[in-house]
Protein: Vanillyl alcohol oxidase
Organism: Hyaloscypha variabilis
Amino acid sequence: MGRNLGYGGASPRVPGSVVIDLGRKMNKVLNIDGENASCMVEPGVSYFKLYEEIQKTGLKLWIDTPDLGGGSVLGNAIDRGVGYTPYGDHFANHCGMEIVLPDGSLLRTGMGALPGKDGADNPTWESFQHAYGPAVDGIFSQSNFGIVTKMGFWLMPETGHQSYMITFPRDNDFEQIVEIIRPLAQRGILGNIPQLRHAIQELAVTGKPRTTWYNGPGHFPRDVIREGVKQLPVGDVSWIFYGTQYGDTASISSQLSLIKSAFAAIPGSKFLLPSDLPPDHYIHSRVQVCSGVPVLRELDWLNWKPNAAHLFFSPIVPTRGSSARVIHDIITRLHAKYDFDVFPTLCVAGREMHYIANIVYDRSSEDEKRRARELMREMIDEAAREGFGEYRTHLLFADQVAGTYSWGGGALRRFNETLKDALDPNGILAPGRSGIWPKGYRGKGWELVGEKAKGCVTARM
Ligand SMILES: Cc1cc2nc3c(=O)[nH]c(=O)nc-3n(C[C@H](O)[C@H](O)[C@H](O)COP(=O)(O)OP(=O)(O)OC[C@H]3O[C@@H](n4cnc5c(N)ncnc54)[C@H](O)[C@@H]3O)c2cc1C
C-alpha cells in the first residue's frame, strides 16, 4: 500500500522504475477461518479492512495491528513490522504465501505447496508454516526476490485484557527498568511486547506543537520537558511503561500483582490504569491497539513541527540495562549534535529490544533534511561498532545498513546476491531493495552510502 512511513514509503530505489500498486485492486480478504483462527489476505488489505471484515462475520477473533492501522497487513509483515498483542511479531505469525517470482512463475510456500483434494487449496496451508525441505518464506521478507500476492495470518481468539502504565520519576531509572522487564518477559509474565517511552513522548502525543512549551533555540531542553509533563495527568515523570495483560480476570490480577511488586523496587514508581486517566489520554489509544483495534492516534506526534516528516532509527539491542544505556547515550548525544529532539520508544522483549528513535524534521527545510540524513548515517555506524544493527530501515540507508552486517567478509550479502542472481538474473525486481543489488548493477556506483550515488544525485526523502 506504500504507507511504510518513516521507512521509505512506496519509493523505488532506482529512478525510472515502474511502481506496482498492489494496494488499489488486490485488496480482498480471501478467507477468514473461524475454527482455525486464521485468514488469507491480498496485499491491499489494510488493518482497518481486515478488522471490519472480521467484525462482519461476528467471529470472536482479534487482528494484531501496528501503532498505525492504515498500512497493509501483508506489506507490514513482509517488512517484518511489529504490533502489540501476543501476536505482535507479524512475520512469525504468518502462515503460507503465494509469490510471483521474477520469471513470472508462481510459488506457494508451506503446506500450500501440496495440492489439496480435487484441486482445492491445501487444508493446512494456514495452519502449519513449513513444507518439506528448507523453510523459504523468510527470503521473501525485506527482499527483492518476488512479489507476494497472498499471505496467511493467524488470528488471536478474543480474550480479556487490561492495559496499564507504570511511571518512573528519574532519567537514571532507565537501566533498572530494563533489568526488571527482562525476567518478566522471559518468564512469560508480561502479556505483550510493552513499550517504554520517555516523558517527551507524553508531550508529543498530545498532538500539540513543540512551540506550546518551547520557542527557544536548539533541541528541547530537559527542564522544559519536566515543566511540561508536570501540567499533564502523569505529572513529573521521566519514563513511562505501557503494558497489557491478557486472560480471565483472575489470571490478569495475579500477573499484575507480580508485575507491580517487581517494579516497586524502583522508588517513586506509580501504577496507573486507564480509568485513572482522562478520556483524551493516549493510554486509551494503547488499549485499542493492544486489543487488536486499528487506530491512527499515533500520527498526532507529527504535529510537533510544521511540515513534519520523520525517519525511524531502529537498532536491535540486548535487553540489558548496560546495553540500553550505551545505545541511549549514542542516540541522545548524536541528536544533540545535529540539533534534533530525541523521541525514544523501546519495544522490549525478553532477550532483545527494538529501540525506535523517531527523528521528526521539517520537510520544507533542506537544512533539516540534510541534518536528519547525517544523523541517521552517524547513528548507524556508531551503533554497529557496538554490535547493534537496524531491524529495518528507510531505503536511503539500505546499503549502509546492509554493509554493517559484514561478518565473514560480507558473507550474508554475498549469499543474498547469489540468491538474487539465481532468481532474478536480469535484475528486474526492486534493484537495491534492502541493499541487494543484481549483478548488472553491482560495483557501478549505485550503492548509496553517502549523499551521492548513480541516478540519485541528491538523496531524496
Ligand atoms: C507514527 C507511526 C507509527 C508507526 N508504528 C509502527 C508500528 O508500531 N509497527 C510497525 O511495524 N510499523 C510502524 N510504523 C511504520 C509503518 O507505518 C507501518 O509499518 C505500515 O504498516 C507499513 O505500511 P505498508 O504496509 O503500506 O507498507 P508497504 O510500503 O506497502 O510495504 C513495505 C515494504 O514491503 C515491500 N512489499 C510490500 N508489499 C509487498 C509485496 N506484496 N511483495 C513484496 N514486497 C512487498 C515493499 O518493499 C515495501 O516498501 C509506524 C509509522 C508511523 C508514522
